[in-house]
Every structure is written in structure tokens, then in C-alpha cells.
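Lecture notes, unit on protein representations.

Consider one protein chain, 359 amino acids long.
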Amino acid sequence: NFAYQYNSVGKYSQYESIPNAGNKRRFLDIGLYANDKIVELNDDAPLHNRLRETSVYLKTNGSFSTHNPTLSVDTTRFTIEQANLQDNPQQEVESNTRAYYASIKRNFPNQYGQIENIKYVSTGYSGKFYENDRGEYTLEKKYYPAFGGDTYINKFALKRKHSFFTRNLANLPAKVDNVPFDYWLFPNLGYPTYYIGESPEELLPTLASSLSAGIAAGLATAGAISALPLDATTAGIINSTVISTALATVFSAFVKKNNLDANPNNAFYQKGFFYTASYGIPVFYVESDINVDLRHGRNDLEENFYPNVGDGIPDDWLHEVNVPIKYDNFYSYNATYSAQNLSPNLPYRLKYPDLGCLT
């Protein structure tokens, strides 16, 4: 099988602080949601987001200073040949991934209402106070963390995807085989480095010349050229031309137009790999108004999500036959889980605890 797909899961479990020096904040010149098309941005160039996940496009009014990491360097991008996996291309490989963590700030001074009508958000914190001899009130217990509020800190994951071609041979009708198809005619972004096709490859003049020279030398050794009714030089030229033409015809008829990874570069023996798509699932902590721990999927396939589809690398879920790459991420969530506790506390009869709360 020549066709392969790159699947990976990146779990961000460590961090490295960036020196807090200089101005790290930038204003946004452009901020918009980008769908899975070629998006016009009113910028220098459009965003090529075809067959990729819906995301947010941000452009700042200035560049950022780079920081050389000491914790890890990203080593997640490699080919089968670079990882020396020619004999076992499906073997899982561990590598290091890294990314910058940033946040978007918005000036929202009345987030909790106007100053004369503040909406208090309960954190669920409670404690007992007692009055000392001096008439001062002191917390009976030592302060402990208060949980609640309106911001959740959870692990979040999404499916990041890129198709190297706009078409593929997945989901063909049953019992269809040997369908001629030229992947190199359907590039998605630029021109993929590795591809495969059924159209004949043109024989380069240098290759035809070297092949014909070798065959001509063999014929000369056998005395074939000397038997021709022409002088040796003329015979050599004529036979070289004839052999080159014949080889070009044979080469074009049988050798396909391919460029494969880990290819032994044999003119008549095709071996190697090319890549149809690349998937990456980053798993990282986020601060959000949404409690993503309570996210749910609507089915087991395209509307599901990681890690609900299983631990490890979900190869079956990412397979084109099961979930085509055209499907975006789906986010299903019950907004009730994010409802703020803005209701006032009901009065409680301290003298009659058995009555509970008044209604």
C-alpha cells in the first residue's frame, strides 16, 4: 500500500515560563472566524483553510519576540524515511511537541453589571466568624480555596487536520479495484512533495542516454554493432538513437508518474509511500466559560470527539472511510452547565432549622 496518513495526539503536560520582560501585549488588527474554505481576510493574502478545521484567525499589529526553549524542542514533524520506519510504517513513535500559550483580553468593565447594580456570583465559599473580646470578627477557620465563579479550567482537545489532496479514492463502491487516478492532478495546497499517479512519466533525456549507452555497450561487446553495414561511428549513433527512442516508449508505457517517500530510486521498480492527510489532536488546559468536561457527542463517528472516542491514537476514528476529512469538529454542550449562580440566597430560619428554606 503506497498511501498513508499521519495521525498523532499531543498532550501538553509540562510548561516553561517565558521571561517576563518587555511588552508582550499586542492589539488585534484582524480577528474573525475562518471556515473550511479559502477565506478572504481583507489582508495581504487570503487564508487557505480548505478541508481544515474551523478556527479563529488573528493578526496582531506587531510581531512577537522569539524565545529559545530549554524544556523541549518540537520534533513531531517527520516522514517515514526520516524516522527510519520503512519496514514498519505503522509503528507508533514518541516525540516532543511544544506551543506558546496565549490569551485574548477584552475590555469589558461592566461584565457583572453597572456599578450601582452589581451582580454577585456565588463561589460556594462559606465560613464561620466569631467575635473576640475587642469586638472584632475573625474567621473561625483558616482560609481555604474557594471554588465556583464563572470560569472553568479543563482539559480540551480538538481535531486538527490537513488534506494534501482535494480528492481521494476512499469510499469507492464495493469490488471496485485498479481505478486509474492521478493524485498529483488534485493538490490542495501548493504541490505536495509526495504523490502517486497512473499517467505515464516522461523519460528524461539524461536517463534515456545513460540507459541506451549501457545497452549499446552490451551490444557492442556481443558484436552486434560491428555486423551492421555502416562504419562503427555511424552505427553507434544510429543504434543509440533507436535504442533511446525505444526505451522512451517502453518507459512511458509502463513507468508511472510518482514521487514516493523512502523510494529506492529504481527506474522500473516502484516502492515507497505518499501521504494523503495529516491529523493532529492537541490536548491542553484552557480557561473558558464552558465546562468542557461535560461536553458530549451526538454519535460515535463524525460528531464525536477526543478522548470520548478512546485513549491513545484513534486511528479508526480518523480513517477516511469512517469519518471523511470534510467533517469539521462538532461541539455539543448543554449551556445549563455554565449557568451562573446569580439567584439570591433564600432566607433561613436559624431558630427553626427543621423548617428548612422559606419559599
